[in-house]
Amino acid sequence: MTEETALQRYLQAGETSVSNLLLRHYKQLGLTTAQLVLYLQFKSYQDRGTMNPDIRLIAKNLGTDETQVFNQLHQMMTNHLVEQKMRQLADGKEDAIYDFTPLLAKLATLDLQTVNREERHEQQNTRQQIFAMLESEFGRPLSAMELQIVNDWQDKDNYTPAMIKLALRQAVMNSARNLQYMERILQSWARQNLRTEHDITEHERQFENQRAAKGQPASGQGKHSAGPQIPIYKLGE
Predict the structure, then answer these.
(1) Full-model pTM
(2) What is the mean pLDDT of the chain?
């Protein structure tokens, strides 16, 4: 056999694609490595239109016997990863096929649960970072009531982490390190639908340009010790 002929045979054999999710999570699905390879054997035939491949041939490909293949299939059926269905052929006869839809459905559910768990973990980390940032700037631990207020900002008011971070920056610039001051800023931004860092900083830049054009001091300059103003709160007025 020439090298060209061997390459042609390789290309003509086709390929079987498999989701990387399955390769990463098959153990979590309850699949053994042997069952994963067995599924791939079935998939290689079914992808080419042979929905009911010969078990003897699959056993030969795996270097095992038919009994072992049936035992693995039975275990997968017990674990609700595959089911046997009847299909009607063109000549009116019926035959049984192995349907791996339950395996794929379970994989999709597992992946969604994994994504949700990672998102919750990330949100919790972000929340803890916000608490730490506030306590660092305030120079003291937050009280239980203050923690609840910050939680409500995110859970009820849907203020983004970027909004809270920038509101804290405004509070620090104006020497008003308290949540009441920050809340006024957050409410103003929410009314103006400013929720991203880009939108807020761009709006703030425009406001500062307007102040400069009128000869007013920039934000954070010329503040009185009592009752500091909130320059960003007046945006849009």
Answers:
(1) 0.57
(2) 87
